[in-house]
C-alpha cells in the first residue's frame, strides 16, 4: 500500500482484485451517475464499502488524486468518491447547519467503525474533531465565540493515522456532503467558514494525501 496514488491506478487495482471488485461493483451500482441518484442509498453504500475495506485500502482510495487534465483519472475519482450522488444536495446546506444537524442525528453522531483504530461505538464528529483538530481548537473546546477567532486559511489538521481514520469514517454521512457559507447571516460567517475548512479543507487533506 503506497500513498500518492492516482485515482485511476487505485481503481484499476481494485477492479483486478476479486474481493475488492465485488464490493466496488455493489457500491457503484447504487451510486451510478447514469441513473437518478438516491442520495441516502448511495451514502449507505459508501459507508458499507469504505468501512469494510482494510484500512490501508480505504486510505488509498480516499486520498487518491489526479493531475490535470487526466479525464480518465477524474472519472475514476468521481466514482470512488461518490460525487455528485453522495455529496451534493440542492440547495447546498450551510456548513453550520450541517454541524448542528449532525449533533442531533443518530447516524452521524454514532457509528460502529470496523477499522484498525476504532473498535467501539463512538461519536463520529467528536472523534474527527478530537483526532484532526483538537491540537488547534483545544483552547476553545466548544465555545463558538472563541472558535470564531481561529485562523482558518492555513490551519492544518493533525494529518496523522488517527486523523485519516476519523476522516474516512465521515464518508457516507452528512459531514461529507458539500456545504456553503454564502447564505449565512453575517454574524455566523466566521464560524461557518471555520467548519467548512474543517470538513473540506483542501490544504489539510492535501497534506493527508501526501
Keywords:
210 residues; mainly alpha; 2 domains; two-stranded antiparallel ribbon; 12 helices; 2 strands
Structure described in brief:
The chain is mostly helical and 210 residues long. It has helices at 7-16, 18-30, 39-51, 55-62, 71-80, 95-104, 106-109, 124-137, 144-147, 161-170, 189-200, 202-209, and strands at 110-112, 121-123.
Oligomer state equals single chain
Global shape: globular
Overall SS class: mainly alpha
State the low-pLDDT regions, or none. Answer: 110-122
Order of helices and strands: HHHHHHHEEHHHHH
Averaging pLDDT over every residue, what do you get?
79
| Terminus-to-terminus distance | 13 Å
Number of H/I helices: 12
* Portion in strands: under 5%
In the sheet with the most strands, the strands line up as 1-2
Radius of gyration, CA atoms, in whole angstroms: 17 Å
Q: Domains counted in the coordinates: how many?
A: 2
The percent of residues in helical segments reads 55-70%
Biggest sheet descriptor: 2 strands, antiparallel
Number of strands: 2
Amino acid at each position: 500500500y503506497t500513498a500518492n496514488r492516482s485515482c485511476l491506478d487505485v481503481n484499476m487495482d481494485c477492479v483486478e482484485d476479486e474481493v475488492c471488485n465485488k464490493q466496488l461493483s455493489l457500491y457503484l451500482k447504487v451510486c451510478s451517475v447514469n441513473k437518478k441518484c438516491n442520495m441516502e442509498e448511495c451514502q449507505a453504500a459508501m459507508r458499507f464499502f469504505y468501512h469494510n475495506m482494510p484500512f490501508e485500502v480505504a486510505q488509498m482510495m480516499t486520498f487518491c488524486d489526479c493531475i490535470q487534465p487526466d479525464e480518465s483519472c477524474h472519472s475514476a475519482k468521481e466514482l470512488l468518491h461518490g460525487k455528485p450522488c453522495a455529496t451534493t444536495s440542492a440547495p447546498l446546506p450551510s456548513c453550520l447547519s450541517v454541524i448542528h444537524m449532525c449533533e442531533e442525528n443518530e447516524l452521524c453522531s454514532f457509528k460502529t467503525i470496523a477499522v484498525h483504530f476504532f473498535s467501539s461505538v463512538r461519536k463520529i464528529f467528536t472523534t474527527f474533531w478530537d483526532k484532526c483538530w483538537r491540537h488547534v481548537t483545544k483552547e476553545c473546546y466548544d465555545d463558538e465565540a472563541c472558535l470564531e477567532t481561529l485562523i482558518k486559511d492555513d490551519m492544518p489538521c493533525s494529518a496523522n493515522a488517527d486523523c485519516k481514520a476519523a476522516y474516512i469514517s465521515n464518508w457516507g454521512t452528512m459531514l461529507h456532503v458539500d456545504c456553503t457559507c454564502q447564505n449565512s447571516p453575517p454574524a455566523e460567517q466566521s464560524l461557518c467558514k471555520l467548519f467548512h475548512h474543517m470538513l473540506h479543507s483542501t490544504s489539510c487533506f492535501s497534506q493527508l494525501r501526501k
